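Fig. S4 source data, part A: sequence.
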Amino acid sequence: MQSNHGVYNIEGGCYAKCIGLKKSSEPEIYNAIRFGFVLENVVFDEHTRDVDFDSNAVTENTRASYLIDYIPNVRIPCVGPHPKNLILLCCDAFGMLPPVSRLTKEQAMYHFISGYTAKVAGTEVDVTEPEATFSACFGGAFLMWHPMKYAAMLAEKMEQHGTSAWLVTTG
């Protein structure tokens, strides 16, 4: 979220992919998974309740939600300065976009409005081949206003705070 004073987290928590999660490689996330967390799409032993973070029997798209307070040295309240760089992530499974692109304000608006990404095998049930998908502002189902209003707000804030925009493709 963004305000005139900077950016902030209103959820009070984090949402992380946890397939292959190991204490040795991601100790903060691993240790945050304790009482008060929520796991989805994971396999666990019904008797010991131990989670098998290496299993993809349900999907590769396993997730953990946990309270922000479970991360050591967290900044409370979760407020930071306006960003100097904005990164739009896109899973371009078709290789049409370069891996990293610096965007003009207008290009950032375009990519934000289109919300292009790809569904890939292992992230959703019955997806076996890459499938292009679009979601306005990367959250179409949750928008109250027309996507152009959000894009105009984005451009205004980028200009106001001298923010550079980047498109990073992960496909």
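Fig. S4 source data, part B ends here. The radius of gyration is 18 Å.
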